Give the backbone structure.
Amino acid sequence: MEEDFEFGKGCFGLDESQVRLYTAIARHTVLVMAALAVSAITAALLHDRTDTRAPPPVRPGQKPPPDPGMIPLTVPEVKRLLAAALARPSPPGHTDHWSGWTRRHQARSRWFHQRTRLARDAEIALVS
């Protein structure tokens, strides 16, 4: 529960209200939690369709794949996409391009991070 409130505060602005009445606080909380729920459900439903990551490395010296794929849509990314759809118009394809670039970069970073951990674990096993 604590993590949900922390995530709601950091990503959705749960703590960014300047209200004095209980009714206003309750309305703000309900709206923020509804937005968080919509984003979380959307990300969960699209997880399998948007997860195109390459298989993780199996040995420390493995070469990276030519296409790292993309990480699945996350709750903050769904929030950004919904906000971009409702905001002022941007150049055609800009939001999709930026989202794809970010998710591809995150997949590549994750792959290299996993390979580095394999190398570190192998070094620890040799020392022990």
About this structure: Residues 2-127 form one domain. The helical segments are 2-12, 22-50, 75-86, 94-127.
